Amino acid sequence: MSRPLDGIKVITLEHAIAAPFCTRQLADLGARVIKIERPGVGDFARAYDERVRGMSSHFVWTNRSKESLTLDVKQASAQIVLARLLEDADVLVQNLAPGAAARLGLSFEELHPKHPKLIVCDISGYGASGPYRDKKAYDLMIQSESGFLSVTGSADEPAKAGCSIADISAGMYAFSSILAALIQRQQTGAGSRIDVSMLESMVEWMGFPMYYAFEGAAPPPRAGAAHATIYPYGPFPTGDGKSVMLGVQNEREWGAFCRVVLQAPDLATDDRFLANSKRTAHREELRSLIVEVFSLLTLEQVRQRLDDAQIANASVNNMEDVWNHPQLKARGRWTEVSTPHGALAALLPPGLSNAYMPRMDKIPALGEHTECLLRELGMSDNEIESMRLDGAI
User: Fold this and answer.
1) Intra-chain end-to-end CA distance of the chain, in Å
2) What pairs with residue 196 in β-bridges?
């Protein structure tokens, strides 16, 4: 079956997570993604760790189905190659250091007259303007600047997210914005520029706590793994030394929770707990009552009561549990991708379509496609060897 982005050519000067996550998803939909990397070093995310048979866990996650071309883009011969690649490209994505793309002649303003259909997506920490424009930005810096750390963690100490959510959010907005730009180009015939900042992406995700603290009101308190403003909503220990995650969202569920789960129907009308705001205010008293009941039950017994009461609940899984999750297995969500070190399990992209299968091709070795791509551009063996001797590839 054909895929939605078959025939779309993407050139990307990318590193770390935000841009690679964006372009991997374009590749999932069928786009041809040519990843330009530094000769000998490559995307620095290749060296983050060696957890996956000697390969980096971050790199394996975000770089399948791409072609790796090594180019020292500061050299004249490499710039000629890059210019040729852009002649029939549909999208250029970059998340280089602030100002680097413009210095290389890769700004939308310089490219648009020569390539009027080209879509240029610039991903940066803080955006292309403003006083923070030139600041370096890594994921943790943006988690901090966006206020995420102020509402995450325990009452005593803030905590970062366990994955790169600022990068992921920017990558997702870049991905969806590129899809929108491709649709717009069908209507107008013209390419456009997309300016995605990690800060703005994360601040969008902070909408709830920002409005909760509207006009100087107190922000949501840090509440660990529990919900800051809804209760009971979070993890509770069970009698067999495990934990259950549960969430009571409304008064109907609160009544069912008291009758079926706690088997204490009178608690439903206790004045201390008659509304969510009261339950939140008296959360320590309520927690003690819940823990007392759960201490006499196993995790499975608690979950059965919660299911019987139609209360949302979950296991507190570790990574091994997720790899072996029965729901993912039952839905056939795992496949394999090739790598330079053998086949690996990989999750199929979310958003299951009945019209096509996502592209799930090899994770490239550094520079694996350099010679093929240069020959495709019409370069001779002598020209390629000369570039190699000059360190341009």
Assistant:
1) 35
2) 123
pLDDT (mean) for 210-233: 91
Closest listed residue to residue 10, CA positions, set 350, 18, 2, 30: 30
Cα distances from 76 to residues 41, 71, 100, 111, 244, in angstroms, run 20, 11, 16, 17, 60
Write down the pLDDT at residue 254.
Answer: 97
pTM: 0.91
At 210-220, the pLDDT tens digits run 999 999 999 99
> How does DSSP assign 314-340, residue by residue?
EE---HHHHHT-HHHHHTT-EEEE--T
Nearest to residue 315, comparing CAs of 330, 298, 332?
298
CA 21 to CA 360: how far, in whole Å? 14
Q: How far is CA 218 from CA 25, 150, 171, 281, in A?
A: 39, 12, 31, 14
Radius of gyration of the chain (CA): 26
> What does the pLDDT read at residue 334?
96
Please name which of 168, 147, 159, 149 lies closest in space to residue 210, comparing C-alpha atoms.
Answer: 147
Question: What 3-state DSSP class applies to 277?
Answer: helix
91 neighbors 30 (Cβ within 8 angstroms):
no
Q: Which of 43, 167, 271, 308 is catalytic?
A: 167
Cis peptide bond prior to 232, omega within 30° of 0: yes
The position carrying tokens 């710039």 is: 79
Locus of tokens 């196993």: 298
How far is residue 162 CA from its own chain's centroid?
12
Phi, psi of 125, rounded to the nearest 5 degrees: -70, -45
The whole-number average pLDDT for the span 314-331 is: 94
134 is catalytic: no
Q: Using an 8 Å Cβ cutoff, are 10 and 91 in contact? A: yes
Which one, of 259, 357, 373, lies nearest residue 311 by Cα? 259
Residue 19 φ then ψ, to 5° = -70, -45
What is the set of domains in the chain, with CATH numbers?
Answer: 9-205+329-389 (3.40.50.10540), 233-316 (3.30.1540.10)
Residue 292: closest CA among 314, 264, 333, 322: 264
Confidence at 185, pLDDT banded by 50, 70, 90? very high
Single-letter residue type at 336:
E
